[in-house]
Specification:
Elements lengths: L7 H8 L3 H8 L7 H13 L6 H8 L4 E6 L8 H16 L3 E6 L5 H11 L4 E5 L5 H10 L3 E4 L9 E5 L1 H14 L5 E5 L4 H17 L8 E3 L5 H9 L7 E4 L2 H13 L9 E5 L8 E2 L3 E4 L2 H16 L8 E4 L2 E3 L7 H6 L10 E2 L4 H9 L7
Parallel strand pairs: 1-2, 1-3, 3-4, 4-5, 5-12, 6-7, 6-8, 8-9, 9-11, 10-14
Antiparallel strand pairs: 11-13
Length: about 375
């Protein structure tokens, strides 16, 4: 047939090689000289060769797929999660992996993980979850299959995980507020998942290192109360905060709107800082001081760790922490940022955060329902 797809044997005949040599070259075997691998790749491209993945998986015992477990596709509407998925996707593509999604809605994550481990449709799994339960860790160990947990680990030492350095990122943010003269710093935190708890730990760590007394009235959990309620409770204190830290971007937007509704100017009357640097934060006024995560590096590190496990290797460490970056803009009251007029990026397309609850809520809804 004139239109029959090219095969490994066609490439072998063109180059005068044995088909097993071509097969190893296409699978990036280090036993094949680089020049031969390059020649095979060139001819494969000329012949428009595409591997038969089912046959390949039967021969090699590998599918060429990475399984990615996320709570639901709605969860992907979270801007930070979408950035992380893009980082994982680019890293997987660079290593010639396809992505196989597992999602759930209302179904226990442990059940989804067990299903994926029993199916073994992928060579390994990356699990994006707010926290790692004992059951999830036990499943990963019992099935002896490559699993990397993404930005969640807690205190476990028996799993492989890649995480943002949430603790030190938040610690530097609070220390920066202290350099601006703030001693009463409120924390509004969603502490129901690993990253949120690490951020809260960083907040307390900074206060200790600075010698600032701990005040429970200045710490509020978003698990049961809204950002507005927590803000009001702190402002009603006899000695209210002069700065507020919010652990997630979508709650920060709602907080800014609430402060505007109360006639409280940021940063003149109250400094506000946040975690997660989404593109919007350098456009709104005041431009927000935040901690920026590195989704590209998180994705690369997670795929690299999983790839090592897939090929029978042992990663150098079980938990890899990816550094974060402090981004100083106007909302913290930094004199340098306010004076420069450049802290928030270019001036066109600005969005001034007055009291616009519908807009603030719409923007905050971009955050979806998952951990960031």
């Amino acid at each position: 047939m004139a239109n029959a797809p090219a095969t490994i044997k066609d490439i072998a005949r063109r180059l005068g090689l044995h088909h097993s040599t071509v097969s190893r070259a296409l699978n990036y075997s280090r036993q094949i000289p680089p020049g031969t691998r390059a020649a095979v790749a060139r001819v494969a491209d000329e012949l428009k060769y595409h591997p038969h993945h089912v046959a390949r998986s039967l021969v090699l015992g590998k599918t060429g797929c990475i399984g990615l477990i996320v709570p639901s596709f709605g969860f992907i509407s979270n801007v930070v999660v979408a950035q992380n998925l893009a980082g994982i996707g680019r890293a997987a593509e660079g290593r010639k992996y396809s992505l196989l999604f597992y999602t759930y809605s209302g179904e226990p994550l442990e059940r989804v993980l067990e299903h994926a481990l029993r199916q073994r449709l992928a060579d390994g799994l990356i699990v994006i979850a707010g926290a790692v339960s004992a059951g999830m860790a036990d499943l990963a160990r019992q099935h002896a299959w490559p699993v990397v947990f993404f930005d969640c680990r807690g205190k476990r030492d028996d799993i492989y995980a890649v995480c943002s350095d949430n603790h030190n990122g938040c610690r530097r943010l609070i220390e920066h507020l202290a350099t601006l003269g703030h001693r009463r710093i409120g924390a509004i935190v969603r502490d129901s998942y690993d990253a949120g708890r690490e951020r809260l730990r960083g907040y307390h760590s900074a206060l200790r290192s600075l010698g600032i007394p701990r005040d429970r009235a200045l710490v509020g959990s978003l698990v049961k109360r809204t950002a507005a309620d927590l803000c009001d409770a702190m402002l009603a204190l006899e000695n209210p905060p002069t700065a507020l830290f919010c652990s997630e971007f979508r709650y920060t937007l709602l907080l800014l709107d609430h402060l505007a509704a109360r006639g409280i100017s940021v940063p003149r009357d109250m400094a506000v800082v946040s975690y997660d640097d989404i593109p919007l934060f350098d456009r709104i006024r005041p431009a927000l001081t935040t901690v920026r995560q590195n989704p590209a590096e998180l994705g690369r590190a997670a795929v690299e760790m999983l790839d090592t496990l897939i090929h029978g290797g042992t990663p150098p460490r079980r938990r890899l922490l990816v550094p974060t970056e402090l981004v100083v803009r106007e909302s913290c009251g930094s004199s340098a940022a306010l004076a420069s007029g450049k802290a928030g990026g270019e001036q066109h397309g600005e969005l001034k955060m007055g009291h616009t609850p519908a807009l603030a809520q719409a923007i905050a809804n971009i955050g979806g329902g998952g951990a960031s």
